[in-house]
Amino acid sequence: MSHKPEELLAVTLARLIRARPTRHIAVGAASPIPAAACWLVSKGGSPVRLSLLHKRSGNPFTEGTRELFDLTGQGRIDLFFLGGGQIDGQANLNLIGTGEWPGREVRFPGSFGSAFMYFMAGRTILFREEHSSRVLVDRVAHISAPGVSEPGVFRRGHAQALVTGRCVFGFDPARGRFTLETLHPGETLENIRAETGFDFDVAPSLGETPAPTAEELALLRGPVCDEMMETYPEFCSRVFERKAAA
Amino acid sequence: MTTLEEMAASVPDGALLALPPDNSLPSVALAKALIRRGAKGLRLLGVPVSGFATDLLIGAGCVAEVQTSAVSLGEAGFAPRFSAAVRAGTLKVVDATCPAIHTMLQAAEKGVPFMPLRGLIGSDILANRPDWVVMDSPFGDGERIVALPALSPDVAAFHGVMADSLGNVWVGRRRECATLAHSSRRVLVTVERVMEGNFLEDERLAPGTISGTYIEAVAVAERGAHPVALLDEYGFDANHVAAYARAARTEAGFNEWLAEHVFTQRAAA
Which PANTHER family match (chain A) (predicted)? Predict the structure, then answer.
């Protein structure tokens, strides 16, 4: 069955979610693809609690916006998603900008909660659709949130993986390095090397990112889309070809 | 009760003014009134990030400094006048991360000089914050942790749904506005309407109510959060914000937008 690139990314993220025990996921990024992945896991029958911070109704927190951070500090958030204007080979994230501090060349919006969530969530999946040497750099211009921490600094979790529009990298916090694990259809190792600004290892089992199954596509286009219409109408229309009711 | 324009006049130039972001009851009406009064040198605090109202105030030349964890128009993208001011070097930006701003306000709320927060170590945010201090845990467990100073804004401003006869304000589940009210020296609130009675005597309203103890002034400003959403009262006006984002790409476009949406509003009122 044919599928859109966004659908491949959603099922790929969902597979990474299911790869480890996950009770509670918070999605803070504005990107709808991680949200689709979370709903896919949930609608596929896994009992997981979702706190979708960009949902227009049904905000789960009644103690104010600090409650997400308090929950995460306690270790109650197993998985968070982060991206970055720049991501480097040690999984450092830059949401500040480029040029002299605080981003005199190109200013990104800012770090949001990353300098806390990246340490304190059980784990983080890094997601950035654009895969280019502009985004995936050898060394970020500024560190919003570091990929690894020195001894004596409390850190509960690290990056599990980096998913881009071209491939999936795993991350080993002990070595502070990414390993290329799967290539999306049409990509080659040579192409990934050319488009990536940092050095990485290659899994001996390097293969193609598995395509969505018919069952996954049916869930995405049906019940997942139903849940996402209110928050992401444009995305649902473009990817799932669902029009909002007039 | 006061009027919106009187409220704006009471905010001194140079004040440290705390504003919640677009999902959290900003008073866009008061931001526009501050622009009309020609406020200067404001130091804005995003609680914990900044949105539409902050971009307006920066573009109108009211702001010297912004302390925040991000400035964004959400789905409409980067905040154009913030970005332009950073590029031009005319705005001092003090970067933070969301829970650090909450923690500094919570320290002020408790009346203690500082509170610790995990994370942060290894981030260039910390490297650019001489006011944040890394310390050894005093409990001898070998943990290094960041101590954040208490922060009391000079003025906090937000937009509640309704006030009662006693000056209590109902904000529903947006309890970050309560933390902000508890920690700030002065609290100015715009509301959609004023109701008879006392919200604190109603068991269902009391948990979402901020006591008038903390609130200096209330002014009615109908649709005072627009184009931002206000709880279940009205939704986010995405078309309005997208049109702003397009217009504000240039200073000239921004000034035309101000003339139409900020300076003509008073004439119509």
Answer: ACETATE COA-TRANSFERASE YDIF, CHOLESTEROL RING-CLEAVING HYDROLASE IPDB SUBUNIT
Complete domains list, chain A, with CATH: 5-237 (3.40.1080.10)
Q: Domain residues for B237?
A: 4-96+153-263
Ramachandran region, residue B150 (left: φ > 0; alpha: ψ -120 to 50; beta: rest)? beta
Pairwise CB contact (< 8 Å): B128 & A119? no
Chain A residues closer than 8 Å to B18 by CB: none
Q: Which residues of B touch A153 (CB under 8 A)?
A: 121-122, 143-144
Collapsed DSSP state (helix, strand, coil) of residue A225 = helix
Q: How far is CA A29 from CA A71, A127, B79, in A?
A: 17, 10, 16
Q: Is residue B268 part of a domain?
A: no
Assess whether B128 and B254 both reside in one domain: no
What are the CA-CA distances from residue B34 to residues A7, A73, B44, B92, B248 (Å)?
Answer: 46, 38, 13, 20, 18
Local confidence pLDDT in tens for the 246 residues of chain A = 799 999 999 999 999 999 999 999 998 756 899 999 999 999 999 899 998 877 666 678 888 889 999 999 999 999 999 999 999 999 999 999 999 999 999 999 999 999 999 999 999 999 999 999 999 999 999 999 999 999 999 999 999 999 999 999 999 999 999 999 999 999 999 999 999 999 999 999 999 999 999 999 999 999 999 999 888 888 899 999 887 665
The reply to whether residue A110 touches residue B71, judged by beta carbons under 8 angstroms, is yes
How long is chain B? 269
What is the four-CA torsion angle of A130, A131, A133, A135, rounded to 10 degrees?
Answer: 40
ipTM of the complex: 0.95
Q: Is there a contact between B97 and A111 if contact means CB atoms under 8 Å apart?
A: yes
B118 to chain A, minimum CA–CA distance in Å? 7
> Is the distance from CB of A28 to CB of B142 less than 8 angstroms?
no
Question: How many domains does chain B contain in total?
Answer: 2
Domain check: are B144 and B43 in the same one? no
Same domain, B81 and B211: yes
One domain for residues B88 and B198 = yes
| B107 belongs to a structural domain | no
Is residue B198 domain-resident? yes
For residues B10 and B86, state if they share a domain: yes
Q: How far is CA A217 from CA A96, A202, A224, in A?
A: 36, 29, 10
Q: Are residues B72 and B120 in the same domain?
A: no
Contacts of A69 in chain B (CB under 8 A): 98-99, 102
Q: Are residues B80 and B194 in the same domain?
A: yes
The one-letter code for the residue type at B68 is T
8 Å CB contact of B124 and A142: yes
| Residue B101 resides in a domain | no
Query: Do B123 and A66 count as a contact with CB atoms less than 8 A apart?
Result: no
